[in-house]
Amino acid sequence: MAVQPKVLHYINGQFMEGAAGAYFDNINPFTNEPINEVAEGRKEDIDAAVRAAKEAFDHGPWRTMPVEKRLRYLFRIAELIETYADDIAYLEALDTGIPISQAKKQAARAAENFRFYAEMVKTRLVGEAYHVNGQFLNYTVYKPVGVAGLITPWNTPFMLETWKVAPALATGNTVVLKPAEWSPLTANKLAEIIDEAGLPRGVFNVVHGFGETAGAALVAHPDVRLISFTGETTTGMEIIRNSAATLKKTSMELGGKSPLIVFADADLERALDAAVWGMFSLNGERCTANSRLLLEQSIYDEFVARLKERVDRIVIGDPMNPATELGPLIHRDHWERVNRYIDIAKQEGADVYAPSVPTGLEKGNFVPPTLLLGCHNGMRVAQEEIFGPVMAVMSFADEEEAIRLANDVKYGLAAYVWTNDMKRGHRVAQAIESGMAWVNSPNVRDLRIPFGGTKYSGIGREGGHYSFDFYTEVQVVHVAVGDPPIPAFGKGEKPTALSAEQA
Ligand code: NAD
Q: Which NCBIfam families match (predicted)?
């Protein structure tokens, strides 16, 4: 498929270059050669996009049209995503290095995001009513908030963008999306799809560009009422600080360092499958990756031996090859960062085990699947998010120690527990400080459940009806159905004026 030479902003229903006419190169992670050029958004472009979105919110038909009609647009977007699923997967693999077989699954999930939120709005965006002492009826209504600023990362960008765009639009908001600068292609494809679906002008806008300029301008804009952010914890902190001046609602989906705990009584083969897939799929660039593997002492040697066998056989290669399991990392800068962590692991005394990258792949940002064996929680590599195919492995003596080690980290996104003692499975899952936990299961999500983290992994939950808390304002209307007493001020005798002396 031919890729457009220029990726433009999409503002008020039109593809356009930025006000300053500036562009930056978009680089192929497999070859490190430019793919194309991307319009570099600045404050003026954010201002134009927010103006269009505010106009569409205040005066357009989007939030006021019959909900059935609005939702038909969402179903149409889902259909079009399916129509273009192969193109989307191709663009995602080209842009990010995610193997094509995995990119296809992400595209399917993106279509599901739109269909799911259309159905949720119809069935679950419901208010409550309270009869109060026969005197009042109090009822709640959910209203769209206004212009939603959505800021997304470069890992699985299409899926994560649609995960925010779908509930924001379904609930009647208008949107300005600022995609990550390293992965602009599928955001542009989403704009094309939404354009083809015929949404009213200004309802959906995309401004490309860097975080410090385009992203920061979106966060600072007084007409943007909420910011949904997915990305690094430190960026999230800065966004919260910067959005304080305009008192925005923020939702924060941040980093992770999630434990996968294997007890000796677990189904070890399935635990192994889950540990390897959960760490090395999506090139290890996955927020919920089980980047800390905690093994009960008695199975440590056997499990590690089997892990090494698996890691040796992971197919590293061209992301466009359907057989590839592990592709190149998104960008040279990120490749350097991940390699720095592997060096730190060596300095910290971890035993680093990794197969070599096959010859012929030297131009790409390849890091082989890497095990950091013999880790302990005092090491940086056991505490900090590496966000590549690198797993810290450590042992524990008993349940109490497993829980303590699992929680001894600043993050709290996901956790995985493997044991055939189900009482222990529940107990350990509930004892771990994480937004989500899986017992004897790989990371499989139903869209109805809340997604998000605790501690440094985020604030708030998205997913299911939980997204409505964020993308809507709840208003209560108090109606008197009887004649409740009203204190009657000003109905008594007119007071005589006090003389200055009496006062
Ligand atoms: P990042 O924080 O560097 O960038 C994310 C987005 O924020 C980009 O669009 C970037 O341009 C923008 N940005 C950067 N500085 C900004 C600023 N000052 N103001 C406004 N916007 C700004 O993250 P990344 O490297 O793109 O993504 C990887 C990170 O995302 C990892 O930490 C990963 O764990 C996290 N992540 C979390 C989840 C989750 O749901 N919890 C999901 C996916 C990724």
A: HpaE
